[in-house]
Each structure stands twice: as structure tokens, then as C-alpha cells.
């Protein structure tokens, strides 16, 4: 294994000057970094919350009540932590899912045309908040 | 065998035989995640309430416990592969090795806890 690496130009070479990018920022770049950010957030925070929820339920009524208490008020409604995590994780899931499906099309060689690629990137950014609002509306008010 | 560049050291060794394995497993679990997570979200959203009894009664059904265990396996495999790429992009040398070991410990530890919790509810009934 080579430990001493020669100093080389770094790639991608992002900046042309202070806060001046070499290229024009586009929606495909936004969804790309969001894919990594939402995936990493769900893999760490989301996974811990899911495991905690299941383990608390398996531990019995008392441990489950302690879990619920962190995310709800005395009336049983979601508190601020519950809302932020609930909305945040739902949005992260829908954004990651929509862009993941977009990537599956690109994996088979489709959707590389500039306009359609850009349009599908924007579509994931529109879809994720709408799906999050629909899910929250259904859970909180729809039943 | 060359001792100079990295390319020189690997020339002539042949294929590692698993170049596309990581990529392919990420795609396969993406597909199974899509199905299982959509089922999970619809199923949880349709629960009448989220009290302890509601949740354990839901998990205890084989129609929930089995897909829920499969979801843990599929989702945790997918995120382990994904976080591996993130670590390989940003961490190097010894810190990369340490981060990858931590990732494996986290994934397997959290996954085992989740599956044990599901099986405990499903096989022993609602704990008192």
C-alpha cells in the first residue's frame, strides 16, 4: 500500500476563486448531494429511531411509553421533536426514493438527455414535499 | 511485477472477480426497499392508533412480522453499502479501516436488535 502519495491536482476542482464555482449549479447537482445527505441521515438517525421504536415496543408498555413521551405532548399529540423528526424523515425518504427511481432509469442507460434529466431532477424536488404533506395530512387529519 | 506506480503493481493480476458485486447488490436492495418501504409507510399510516397495544398487535401478525424482518435485512444491507461508499469517498488510510469496521458493527448490531425485537413481539405475544 502506498502511504506517501505525490501531491496531485484534486478532482473535482470546484472553485475558481472565493465562493466562485467553475460551473453553473443545476438541479441535477442539488438532487445528487441531497441523495447522499438524505441517505446518510436515514441510515444513521432514521435507523436508530426505527430500532428504538421496535425495541421499546418489544420491551413492554412502560418502555414504549417512555419512547412515545419524547415525541409527544401530554395530550398525545406530536411535540416539536416529533414533528421535526416525522416531517424530516418522511421528506428524506420520499426525496431519496424518487431520486433512487430516477437513478434506476439512468442505470439502464435512459434519461441522459439534458432536458429530460433536468426535468426529472426537478420532479423529484417537487414530489418529495408534496408526498410528505399528503402523508402527514393523512396520519394527522385523514382518519 | 512493478514496484513503482499503483497501476504497475496490479497489471497482469487479472480481474478481482467482484467488481460489479457491490453496485449490483445496491440496485437489487433498492428495488426490494421500494416495495417493502412503501408497504411499511402505508401500513403504519393506516394503523388506527399508536399506543403500545396497537403497535404490538400489528407487529405480532405474521403478515407484518415477516415483511418487517425482510425490510430490516433489505434496508440495512442497502444503507451499509451506501455508507461504505460515503466513507470511502471522505476517509483515507487507517481512519477508513476504522470507520468501515464501525459501520459493520453498527449495521449488524442495530439490525440484530431490530429483528430480535420483532421476533420477541411476534413469538412471545405482548409483553406485560
TrEMBL record, chain A:
Molecular-function GO terms, alphabetical: electron transfer activity; metal ion binding
Matching InterPro entries: SQR/QFR_C/D (IPR034804), Succ_DH_cyt_bsu_CS (IPR018495), Succ_DH_cytb556 (IPR014314), SuccDH_FuR_B_TM-su (IPR000701)
Membrane-spanning parts: 39-60, 80-98, 119-140
Keyword set, alphabetical order: Heme, Iron, Membrane, Metal-binding, Transmembrane, Transmembrane helix
One Gene Ontology cellular component: membrane
NCBIfam families: succ_dehyd_cytB
Cited function: Membrane-anchoring subunit of succinate dehydrogenase (SDH).
PANTHER family per UniProt: SUCCINATE DEHYDROGENASE CYTOCHROME B560 SUBUNIT (PTHR10978), SUCCINATE DEHYDROGENASE CYTOCHROME B560 SUBUNIT, MITOCHONDRIAL (PTHR10978:SF5)
UniProt protein name: Succinate dehydrogenase cytochrome b556 subunit
Species name: Sphingomonas guangdongensis
Automatic annotation (TrEMBL), chain B:
Pathway membership: Carbohydrate metabolism; tricarboxylic acid cycle
Record's keyword annotation contains Iron: yes
CDD domains named in the record: SQR_TypeC_SdhD_like
Cofactors named for this entry: heme
Record-linked Pfam families: Sdh_cyt
Keywords: Electron transport, Heme, Iron, Membrane, Metal-binding, Transmembrane, Transmembrane helix, Transport, Tricarboxylic acid cycle
Subcellular location: Membrane
Lipid bilayer topology: Multi-pass membrane protein
Biological process, per Gene Ontology: tricarboxylic acid cycle
GO cellular component, one term: membrane
GO molecular function, one term: metal ion binding
TM annotation in the entry: 34-51, 63-87, 99-123
Subunit architecture: Part of an enzyme complex containing four subunits: a flavoprotein, an iron-sulfur protein, plus two membrane-anchoring proteins, SdhC and SdhD.
Functional summary from the UniProt entry: Membrane-anchoring subunit of succinate dehydrogenase (SDH).
Protein name: Succinate dehydrogenase hydrophobic membrane anchor subunit
Natural source organism: Sphingomonas guangdongensis
Amino acid at each position: 500500500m502506498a502511504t506517501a502519495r505525490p501531491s496531485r491536482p484534486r478532482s473535482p476542482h470546484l472553485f475558481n476563486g472565493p465562493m466562485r464555482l467553475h460551473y453553473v449549479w443545476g438541479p441535477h447537482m442539488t438532487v445528487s448531494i441531497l441523495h447522499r445527505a438524505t441517505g446518510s441521515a436515514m441510515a444513521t438517525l432514521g435507523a436508530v429511531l426505527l430500532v428504538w421504536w421496535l425495541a421499546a415496543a418489544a420491551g413492554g408498555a412502560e418502555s414504549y411509553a417512555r419512547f412515545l413521551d419524547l415525541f409527544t405532548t401530554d395530550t398525545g399529540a406530536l411535540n416539536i421533536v416529533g414533528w421535526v423528526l416525522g416531517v424530516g424523515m418522511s421528506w428524506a425518504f420520499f426525496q431519496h426514493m424518487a431520486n433512487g427511481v430516477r437513478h434506476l432509469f439512468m442505470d439502464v442507460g435512459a434519461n441522459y438527455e439534458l432536458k429530460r434529466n433536468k426535468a426529472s431532477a426537478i420532479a423529484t424536488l417537487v414530489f418529495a414535499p408534496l408526498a410528505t404533506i399528503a402523508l402527514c395530512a393523512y396520519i394527522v387529519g385523514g382518519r | 511485477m512493478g514496484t513503482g506506480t499503483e497501476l504497475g503493481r496490479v497489471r497482469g493480476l487479472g480481474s478481482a472477480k467482484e467488481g460489479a458485486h457491490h453496485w449490483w447488490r445496491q440496485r437489487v436492495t433498492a428495488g426490494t426497499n421500494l416495495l417493502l418501504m412503501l408497504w411499511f409507510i402505508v401500513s403504519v399510516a393506516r394503523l388506527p392508533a399508536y399506543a403500545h397495544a396497537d403497535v404490538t398487535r400489528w407487529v405480532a401478525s405474521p403478515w407484518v412480522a415477516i415483511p418487517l424482518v425482510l425490510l430490516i435485512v433489505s434496508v440495512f444491507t442497502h444503507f451499509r453499502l451506501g455508507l461504505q461508499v460515503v466513507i470511502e469517498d471522505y476517509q483515507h488510510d487507517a481512519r477508513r479501516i476504522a470507520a468501515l469496521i464501525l459501520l459493520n458493527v453498527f449495521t449488524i448490531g442495530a439490525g440484530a436488535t431490530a429483528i430480535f425485537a420483532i421476533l420477541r413481539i411476534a413469538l412471545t405475544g405482548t409483553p406485560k
